[in-house]
Amino acid sequence: MKVKIQIVVESDHGDSQAVQEIMQIERGALQPENLGLKLAEAKTLLQNLQHTLAWKCVQSIATDKRPCGRPRNRDF
């Protein structure tokens, strides 16, 4: 079995989306010890989610425009 975990980021207006795979898990034969996430997998999943979310927020801030229509100063 293969499980792909993706994050979908939509704009505030809901018109644009970014889909990014953050983790893929493969399981062999189903066994009781293979149920759920292992601790290392859960830590990796959370790390990848936080990294992706933070990066998308930074990108959004960097591309925001001021009411005057000019891009924000990116010297931050």
What does this structure look like?
- The protein has 1 helix and 2 strands, in the order ββα.
- The model has no long low-confidence stretch (mean pLDDT 83).
- The protein has one helix at residues 39-63, and strands at 2-10, 17-26.
- The protein has one domain (2-63).
- By secondary structure, the protein is of the alpha+beta class.
- The chain has a two-stranded antiparallel ribbon with strand order 1-2.
- A hairpin with a 6-residue loop joins β1 and β2 (17-26).
- The longest helix is centred in the C-terminal third of the chain and has 25 residues, at 39-63.
List keywords for this structure.
76 residues, 2 strands
Strand order of the largest sheet: 1-2
Class by SSE composition? alpha+beta
How many structural domains in the coordinates?
A: 1
- Alpha carbon gyration radius: 18 Å
Q: How is this structure best summarized?
A:
By secondary structure, this protein is of the alpha+beta class.
Helix-strand layout with pairing:
Blueprint: E1 2-10, E2 17-26, H1 39-63
Antiparallel strand pairs: 1-2
